[in-house]
Amino acid sequence: MPPSEAGATAGAQGAMPRAPRSGPTRATPVLLLALAGLLLVVRVTLGVLEEVRPVERPDRVEWREPAAGEAEARAADRLMLYCFTRDGDPVCRTLSREAFADPQVAGLIQTQFVPIRVLDLEREEGRNPPYVALLEQRYAVRAFPTLVVVHPNRPTFVKQAGFTGRIATAQFLSSAAARILVPHTRMGTGSPIDSAASAP
Amino acid sequence: MNPTLIVALLQQRARSLPRMALVFSFFTLPLMVLAFARGAGLAPLHVGQAFAVLLGTGIIGQDASSGTLQLLFARPVTRAEYVISRWLGAALAASCLMVAQLAIGAGLLAMHHEMPGAKELLLFAGEQLLTIFGMVSVLLLFSTMLPGIGDILALIVAGITGQALQLGAALFKAPWLARVGVELGRFVSPSLDLGALFGGGPVSWFEVVSYFSTVTLCVALAIVVMNRRELSYATE
Amino acid sequence: MRALDDVSLSVRPGEAFGIIGPNGAGKTTLLGCLLGLLRPDAGRIAVDGRPADDLAVRSVTGYLPERLVLDRWMPGLDFLAYHHALARLDPARRHDEAATALERVGLTQADGRQAIRRYSRGMLQRLGLAQALLGAPRYLFLDEPISGVDPAGVILFRKLLGEMRARGATLVINSHQLDQVERICDRVAFVRGGKVQSIETLEAGAAHARVLRVRWGANSDASALTPERLSTLGAGVGAALEELKPPEARFTVADDDGAAKLLATLLGAGVRVIEATPESGRLERLFVEPGKEKAGP
Q1: Do C70 and B68 touch (CB under 8 A)?
Q2: Which of C138, C161, C171 is best to mutate for the A interface (most A CBs within 10 A)?
Q3: Which domains does chain A show, CATH number per domain?
Q4: Does B224 score more than 90 pLDDT?
Q5: Interface predicted TM-score (ipTM)
Q6: I want to staple C112 with a disulfide (CB 3.0 to 4.6 A). Which of C8, C76, C227, C252 is the partner?
Q7: pLDDT, tens only, C154-178
Q8: Is there a contact between A11 and C167 if contact means CB atoms under 8 Å apart?
Q9: What gap in Å lies between CA A28 and CA C13, rounded to an integer?
Q10: Domain, as residue range, for B99
Q11: Which residue of A has its CA nearest to B116?
């Protein structure tokens, strides 16, 4: 198509566009892509480095041994939070680093529950101590980490396996507490894996 | 950024009854929990992600499926402008809801003499803002590739896959599988722990870079996908 | 299968250019390419020397799509204001120009306050044209512009397009309404199977063979109405007698000039011609494949 002549198009103008622009409508976002690429490279590099030398964050939760924790919860009529964990397990490490090291999550746990850590030793020693095996059997713990919320005087419990993120963990803890304390309460837990069952 | 497109998105969302009903629920129910429960702190208000999902689902896919993009792109609007405006519009709207809810929630906590400190409030708001922008960017990318509200299904599938990989890692004793699962979960639900960042402890630069990497990658790829999209009624 | 194959054409500034063809010919695909919504696998499309999807071209383009999928939740007036803003037109005049555009296409302000999902097919088409005309664009791409429009609307649309042409706008129209295309367009591309098979000029006097059906009155000179006499009269001006069924006959003429001479010759020979009509529109013949022409009624 030949370039338009000024005379031919002079009469075609109505209200002029405010700021005529030019350039393709499908321009590639070169700078943004470059930035994304650079960040991706740095991410992978830092990820590898952190795998080798993980950033340690102190666990802010004051964990009890099972016997002591259960006794405390029974006496104070408080909810118990069992954390079934394994030493060296990467997901357990992530849970500790990202959730239990978080002041808000740790604060929520300290306020709402008696936190009890149950350490699985089957891999290291071939078998667990009897009380650990009993607890794992009672709450059908098959993977680590597993969080179980239960009241010492009520049969129901709520559990979540794996790590779903710091925020989802906080949401699980809040809603699990509500479900145990108010049986008719049903709220979103943020996790598709939790289940409520009766203890044998 | 195109203010016309942002305003149109907000008007479109406001006219969707199901969306607004869900937004209302997620706005009021946590506040009711705060009003009647004690000791929960700000935990019930961790719903920024929900606002992001409710306002961001179908952010591009619905327009693409409805067939309105052909007429839109006959105007002097670049595809990048459209993508970024949709992203900003949804994220800003979700952010406003979060801030309003936080303000009311702080008031309720103050009535119970449980008012958090200014630093805690700021950190909470900052984390929620980052979570919102991150979640909307992930939905943006999925939405450019999937019709209608397929983006939310993709998000759910990706999230479940991440968790399944973590469980699989425990069952099959394969730590690398757990790492893949965690990274997938980190990708579909980007967030940043500002408490840890400003808490005086060691900083995980990997987590900081991961967040911004996810957001920039999602937005950049969304623009690329949109640029490559051919639009014509004849192709349908 | 190629939607478009080796298409090469040019549209002159200020021209009304039609695109016609059977279903599935590639007309909408061609329009999509001209608008920059589709990128061709090979070749180049330029509008005023710029790529078809350039922002500067978009700023002076109006588009009326065939499938009017508009933002159904918006009221009509808001929709026009939205597109006025997208076109980056003067915001100070937005409301007035949107209201004026609405009235120009025969919609009322009350219609403008209704959500688009309540609009009838004809109202949608009018609203679609209104948004295409916002800002008096230099280039107008119209895909089936009068589909679903009532006769009054068709007249209005023709008037509006005529006004745009008078302002020097260039029109590209894809339509199945051949009679409207003939009335509006200067040239027409016939597309079939993804290829441009021909480009027809529709100006008066253009060389265009057609069949002319001539009817005469009762008191015509009978001696002139024999097959031999009519054949001779026609041959004298380059027309061929195809069929004789009193009181009418069918002649093939080469062009407008030939048709005029035939009529003058018949009148001079005492045939009281009371009606002379082309048997089919100029463009209809393009749709009849060679060897499959059918006889007239």
Answers
A1: yes
A2: C138
A3: 66-198 (3.40.30.10)
A4: yes
A5: 0.87
A6: C76
A7: 888 888 988 898 899 999 999 888 8
A8: yes
A9: 31
A10: 3-235
A11: A104
